[in-house]
Design goal:
heterotrimer, A alpha+beta (853), B alpha+beta (185), C alpha+beta (291), A: 853 residues, alpha+beta, 7-stranded mixed β-sheet, 5-stranded mixed β-sheet, 22% strand, C: 291 residues, 5-stranded antiparallel β-sheet, 4-stranded antiparallel β-sheet, globular
Amino acid sequence: MSSRSGLGGFVGTSVKRVEDQRLLTGRGTYLADVRVEGCLDAAFLRSPYPHAEIASIDVAAACALSGVHAVFTGADIERLTNPFLPFSMMTNLYTPLHYALSKDRVRMVGDPVAIVVAESRYIAEDALDLIEVDYEELPPVGTIATALDPTSTPLWKRAGGNVLYDDNAEHGDVDEVFTRADHVFTETFSCPRQSNQPMETRGTLVEVDAGTGELTVHSATQSSHMLRWLLAAYTERRSVLDSAKSFARNKQRRAGLLAGARSFLSESADDLKKQDNSGMFAQVRKEPSTLPHMFRTALGVAGKERFPTVVAKDIGGGFGAKGAVAREDVALAAAAIELGRSVRWVEDRVENLLDGGHAREEEMTLSMAVDDDGTIRGLKVDVVLDQGAYPSTPVAGAMIMQMMRVMWPGSYRMEAFAQRSRIVATNKGKYVAYRGPWANETWTRERMVNVVARRLGMSQAEIRLKNIMGAEDFPTAMVTGPTVDETMSTRKTLERALELADLDSFERAKADAAAEGRYLGVGIANYPEAAPGPPNYWDSLSPGSGVFLRQTARATVARDGSVEVRTPQMPHGQSHETTYAQIAADELGVGIEDVTVVYGDTSRTPFDLLGTGGSRGGPVGGGAVRKAGRSLRGEILDAAADLLEASVDDLEIKNGSVHVSGVPARGVALADVAASVVGDDAAADSLAFDVSESYTSAGDGGWSTATHVCWVDVDLDTGQVTIPRYLVVEDCGPVINPAIVDGQVRGGVAQGVGAVLFERVAYDDDGGMRSTTYLDYEMPTSMEVPDIEIEHLETLSPGENDFRGVGEGGMIGAPAAITNAIEDALSEFDVTVREQYLPPSRILELAGVITPD
Amino acid sequence: MTADGTEGGRGESIDTSAGPRVGIPITCTINRTPIEAVVESRRTLADFIRDELGLTGTHLGCEHGVCGACTIVLDGRAVRSCLMLAAQADRTEIPTIEGLADGDELHPIQQAMHDTHGFQCAFCAPGFLMTAVALLETNPSPTTEEIRREMSGNLCRCTGYRTILDGVERAVGLMADGMKEEGDE
Amino acid sequence: MKNPEFDYRRPETVTDALDLLAEHGDEAKVLAGGQSLLPLMGLRLATPAVVIDIGRLPGLDRIEVADDGSVSIGAGVTHVAAEENDDVARHAPLVHQAMPFIGHTAIRNRGTVCGSIAHADPAAELPAVMLAIDAIVLAASTSGEREIRAADFFRGYLDTALRDDEMVLGVRLPPWPSTRGWSFLVVGRRHADFAIVGLAATLDVVDGWIAAAALAFSGIAGTPQRIDDAESLLVGRAPDDASVAAAAEIVRDAVRPSADIHATASYRTHLAGVLTRRALAAATNVIGVAT
C-alpha cells in the first residue's frame, strides 16, 4: 500500500524516550521550575462555605502586611476583566456568566474571592489569614437530588432553577422497539465524583516585560493557543468604541486577522454551515448580558495590539484537567497587567483537590429492550450530570453529554436509542473532562448487559457475542449516527480476549474457591472509542464540530541539516517528542536524534484550539506530522535532484543523506542540500525548507476498540478486593511505539482501579468538602495496581493515516470490567452493583455481611 | 486594593527584606557541594533546595508528605523534603536528583528507567528515583515484592507503576554488573 | 500550603529545651521528626509561635535495655532506628512487628516513636501498641520528671496528659514475659495507610490457660481503646476457637466507632470483630518465639 510507504524503521518499535535525558536528570522545566527575575507569588482566598452571600470583604490588613504588593477582590476583577462566556451553546443549555473571582456570592467551598500578590507564597498565605470576609450562608445544593428539586435555592438567578440543561433525543423508532421487545429491564446507576489528580498541580506564571509591557504566559496547559486567546479576550476591557478604533488603526493586525479568518472560513466552510445557532439565541434570551459581553470581548480581541505569548514546557500530567482555562489564570493575568509585574500562581494540592477539576458525577437510569434470545433491541437513558458550580471552559458538561449520547450503544447492534440529558448546578467544584470523559456510557452499558444476561440466564460472553457488530455488518452506522467500518473491531478484541481468558477453567476455580469461603469473579467489558472517529461522529455530537478533526504541523530543515517538527499538540506525559520524531524520521530518512519536536510555544507552533485532548495525538496530530514530513521529503528530493542531476523518482533519503537508490556513494548530505537552497553563508539555523500542512482526518481513522477482562478476589471478612489478573486486548491500528501505547493502557486501567476501589471526591450532602488532602483522596499505589496483560490487534483502515488514539481507553473500560467482576464474585448473594465506587464497607453491605449505618 | 489603599494600583510599603525574620545559619553538603546559608525558620527543606539553591528537580506534589515527589536522600535515607525544615538539614549530606548522573553518564537507576520506559509525565520521577537510590543503598538485591512495597510510598498517576518497578529491577542488575566490573578492574 | 511564621529554636540540652517550654508553654510546639507537625503547620492547623527542635538533643537517640528486660526508647529515636534495633525485636516483639505499618519508609526515616505517641492520633499504630503493652511515657518539665501510664496518657483526639510545659523524654516498654504471644494487624484502604481499624493484641498463656490478654484498637474511638470485657473474658480460658469467637463477639458489642469518608461505623464494628479473631489466632501461634 503506497500510503504506508513511510512505515518501517522507527514507527512500530519501542524507541526509547527522547524526553528522558532531561526528565530523568531533574532538568525538566515544569511550571514551578520557571525562574523569572523579580517574579511575585500569588495566593487565592477561597470560600469556606458552599453557598453564601458576601456581605463585606476587608483587605486592608492584608494589604498592610510587609511584603504584600496588592490584593484584588471580585470587585477589582469585574472592573479589569470580562466574564467567562459560553463556549458551546446548545439548544436548551443555559451557561451562567461568571468572573474570575466571585464578588457577591460564593457557590462552592474553594470559590476564589480574592487574590493576594506578595514577595513569596509564604507571605501571600500570611496575608490570606488577614482578609476578613463576612458571609451570609445560603441553603446549599449538595446533591443531584437537591438540584432537581424545584424548591432548591438556585445558584444562578437567571437559570430558573438548578437544571441548566434538559434535552431529549431519539434515534430510531423507540416506542415501537420498546413495545415489541420481549422484555424491558431497567436499572439506575450512579457514579460519584472523581478527580483527575495529575501529580503536578495547575499553575501559571504571567511574565511582564517591564519595558514593553508584553506578556509571556508560562503555564501548565494542555492547550496553549486556547489560553493565549482567552487570556487576551478576558483581560481586554476597553470600550467597544476604543477597540473598534484600534482595530481600524492597526492595518497589519487587521490584515493578519482577516487572512486567518478567511483561511479558517474556507477550510471550515462545510462545518460552519452545519452549525446550529439556536442555542446561542436561547442563551441570550435567558441572559441578555451575554451579547454585550460577547461583543465587547470579541471586539477587544480584534482591536488588541499585543497578544500574550503562551509558553508551556514540561507538564506533569493533566488527564483533561489542564485543558480548561482556569478562573485563576484570568485573575492572575489581570493582577500582573495591573501591577506591571510578573506574578505566578502555583496551585497547592488542597486547592487542586477543591477545584482543580472534578469529573464523572452522573446518575443514569437505563432501560434495555431485549428479546428472549438475548437480542438487544434498544436502549433508553435518563442521565443527570452534576456540573458543580461553575462550568469549565471550554469543555463543559454539555459537550460531554453529547459524547455520551452518541456512544451509549457502543459496539452492539441496536435499533433504537433515546436519551434525556440534564445538567444540574450544585455547590461543588467544577466538572471537567477526565480521560474518556463520556466513559459512564461504557460503564453503565456494560453493567446493563451483564444485568440482562443474568436475568435471561445467559453468560456475559454469550450475550456480547450475540449482539456485537462484526464483519457481516460493515459498513453500517450506529443508531446514533456515526459510520461504522471494520475499525469497529470490538468483536475481534472480544473473541481474542475470550481465548486468552479461558473462562471455563476459571469457573472451576471459582467453584473450588467458594468451597473455601473465597469469592472469585470475572468481568468483561467492551468499548469502541472515537479516536478520532469517523467525520460524522463529530457531526453527530453537534453539527459542524468536525473542526476538531483538523490540526496543522510544520516541518523545517535548517542550513545545518537539523529537522524541526512543530505541533500544536501539547504533550503532558504522552511522549510526543519521541513518537513524532519517529514519524518524521521515517518520512525523512533521518535518525530520531536529528529531529526536534517543538511544542507549547504559541510563537513557534501552528494554531489549534484544543491542543492535546481527545486521543487525537496519534490520529490527528500524528497525521499532520506525517503529511508535513512527506511534503518536506518531496521538497528535499526536488532540490537534491538538481544537485545530483538525477530524477526524483530514483532518489531516497537514508541516514541523513540523499542518494540514488542503491548507490549510497552517489549522495549528498541533508545539510548540503539545505545549503544549496539558502547558500553556504547562511546562518546555521536559517530555514532551507519550511512546510506547513493542515491535516484533516476526514475519511480516515475511525475507531479504537478494546475488551477488558478483570478477575477479582473478594475477601468477605474485610471487604477488600484484589485483582489477581487483568487482561486488555486492544486495537488502535498500527502502533507507533508499543512501549508508549502499553504505558497509556496501563495508566488508564490504574485510574479505573482507583475509581472503583479507592477514589472519591467526598462532599457532604450539604456541600461540605471532606477530601482536601491525599490522606482523604486516595489513589492506588504500586501495591494496589495489578499487573496488566496487554495484547494488541491491528486492524488497518483504508485511510492515509491510520494511527488511532489510545490515550483514554484504559480508563474507559476498567470501571466496567472491575464492577462486573465484583458483581460476579458476589453472585450467590444476588447482588446488582449500581454504584461505580465500591469501598470495602460497600462490598460488605452488598454481600449482606453488614448493614448500612 | 493595594498596600497603599488605592484600588488595583502599585503598592508602596514593600519590604524588600521580606526574607528571614529570624535567620538560622546552616551548613550542609548537597550533591557533594558544601552549602552555607542562613535560612528562614519556617522555610521547608524542599523550598530551600528549589528556590534558594535552584535545584528544581526536586518536585512538590502535595506538600503534606503523601505523594513522595519531593523525596531526597538525607544521610543515606530517603526522606520527604516537604516535611523537613531547612533548619533541620544543618550538618547533613544530601544528594538530590541533580546529583545522580555523572555528567552525561546516567546513574544506573536513570539508565534503567530509560530502558524500561519507566515514566510518562515524569513529574514524580525524581521522588521515585531517589527512593530507589536509597533502597538500593541499604538493600542492593531487593526481591520483587520488596521493590513493590518500597516504591508504594510514591504516587504516579500516569504509568500504573509496572514500568517503574521494572526499572528498579533492571537497576539492581545494572548495579550488580557495575560492581562486578569494578571488581574486575 | 506554606508554614506560618514561627521562631525556630534548637536547644543544646534537655534543660535548655525544658526552659524554652516553660517560657513559651502552649505557644510552643516540640519538633522531633516533624512528620505529623509539619503537615499540620503547612495546612495552618497548627500555628505555634515557637518551634523547639529536640531532634538532635544529646542522649535522646538511645535505645536501652534494663536488667529487668524493659526497653527505653528516647525521644530522638526514629521509627526506622527502632525497627532495625535488635533489642526492640527481642524484648518488644509487638512494637517490632508494628513498625513497618507506620507509613512509608521515607516517613519512618524521620518520624520518631515518641513523636507518634505524643501526637496521639487514634488511628495511628503506636498509641494502640503502647496501650496494649502498658508502656510508660516519661514526661519532663522544669519542675521535674514524671511517668505516665499509656492508659492515662491518651486523653482524646490528638490530646494527651502532657502539660503545656512538658515534653516526652522517652517511653519505657515493660519486660516481655516468655509466655506472651502477640499480633499486630490492621485493615486499611491501601498499603501503609492509617488503618481503618487496627489491633495490637497480646495473650499470656500459662500451662495452657490464658493468664492475661490485651486487645488495644486503633481507629474505633477518639483515643486508642482497650476492650476490658473481652480481655477479662479470655482470662482463665483455653486459647481455642471458642474463646476467640466469644471475645470477638464481646468486642463487636463493646465498640462504638463513628463513620467517616473511608468507612461506615458498622464496617468498623465488623472489622473489630474480624481482627480480634485473626489477631488472637496469630498471637497464640507465636507464644514462646521471642526472648
